[in-house]
Amino acid sequence: MKVLANDGIAQTGVDQLEKAGFEVITTNVAQEQLENYINKHNIDVILVRSATTVRAELIDACPSIKIIGRGGVGMDNIDVTYAREKGLHVINTPAASSHSVAELVFAHLFGMVRYLYDANRNMPLDGDTKFKALKKSYANGKELKGKTLGVFGFGRIGQATAKVALGVGMKVVAFDPFLKETDLELDFFDGQKISFHIETISKEEVLKQADFITLHVPAQKDFVIDEKEIKAMKDGVGLINAARGGVVNEVELVQALESGKIAYAGIDTFIDEPTPAMQVLMNQHVSLSPHIGAATAEAQDRIGSELASQIIDLLK
Ligand SMILES: NC(=O)c1ccc[n+]([C@@H]2O[C@H](COP(=O)([O-])OP(=O)(O)OC[C@H]3O[C@@H](n4cnc5c(N)ncnc54)[C@H](O)[C@@H]3O)[C@@H](O)[C@H]2O)c1
């Protein structure tokens, strides 16, 4: 059986599949040539990340396909319902990258409270001539310990982020209209475990209490953070969006950064990816990353091996 991993797959996944007798092809076939390639090589499984799309026309045109797999969470690039109606299996790996995204949130948070994003822009330019002035301008740092993290969306990534926050000594408050309470289990290196019970509270309360707000909601029709929500936040709050471009109104965000209402923001996901607004990219109060929440070796290994196990279970 043949697996085409069109957007790549970690070596762990390739090894697992090959051991089980699959042929794994990691060539990146251009979208318009996929139909031809799949039919010519009689591909049984097509694996994608976010780049390749698998629409109804491709599904109809390629009868050899039995499984469509998405390495990661969102499946907007696959016609999932249509594929399932046609009897195909559609699989993904929703939990594999949660901890990686959570750590990226903290990379932004730790960086922002010490102005590292700005220091990294200015030190190469002025570090040798204005060292003392730069030292003074970044002197007003803060610790995260003891501060309150407000989590919007208390699903897989929201909870993983809360666990890191608890480990750092932060207070966690969460808003999720579809989840009332949960127990978070923190694992330590020596096998000890601590369980934390968290009850979600209202959006208004989270906005009122949080020193830092991090978003872990799915893409939706309306902004989750808009003018009204920003007004309800504490002055000088920090905001992180590593969820989806479009859950924060970026125009309002930039205004709030200019006025100081929001002191700093960490942005991994942008409205106009892959060409984000310059007002966001150029803002000196923004810590930036190009949608790399899941881009760690560990997450990619877990994604590869979870996909491989599911394929083996379904086809062997
Ligand atoms: N930055 C990255 O690279 C990266 C990587 C993976 C996932 N993501 C994104 O992270 C987000 C969360 O993923 P997840 O796996 O935790 O999803 P999840 O489905 O496990 O959790 C989402 C939670 O949000 C809640 N929710 C929905 N609407 C809400 C709202 N308006 N306000 C508050 N809560 C709301 C849901 O009830 C759910 O509990 C998704 O948007 C996903 O696309 C980003």
Distinctive features:
single chain; 316 residues; alpha/beta; 13 strands; globular; binds nicotinamide-adenine-dinucleotide
Overall description:
It is built from 13 helices and 13 strands. It has 316 residues and is of the alpha/beta class. The protein has a six-stranded parallel sheet, sandwiched between helices. The protein has a five-stranded parallel sheet with strand order 2-1-3-4-5. Strands 8-9 form a two-stranded antiparallel sheet. Helix 1 links the parallel strand 1 and strand 2. The N and C termini lie close together (10 Å). The model has no long low-confidence stretch (mean pLDDT 97). The site of nicotinamide-adenine-dinucleotide has 30 residues, from helix 8. Nicotinamide-adenine-dinucleotide binds next to helix 8.
Concise summary:
The chain is of the alpha/beta class and 316 residues long. Helix content is 39%, strand content 19%. It contains 13 helices and 13 strands.
Average of per-residue pLDDT values: 97
Strand order of the largest sheet: 7-6-10-11-12-13
* Structure classification: alpha/beta
Bound molecules: nicotinamide-adenine-dinucleotide
Q: Show unreliable segments.
A: none
List the helices and strands in order. EHEHEHEHEHHHEHEEEHEHEHEHEH
Task: Tell the overall outline.
Answer: globular
Give a count of the beta strands, DSSP E runs of length 2 or more: 13
Number of helices: 13
Distance between the termini: 10 Å
Helix content: 25-40%
Q: Determine the strand fraction and express it as a percent band.
A: 15-25%
Oligomeric status = single chain
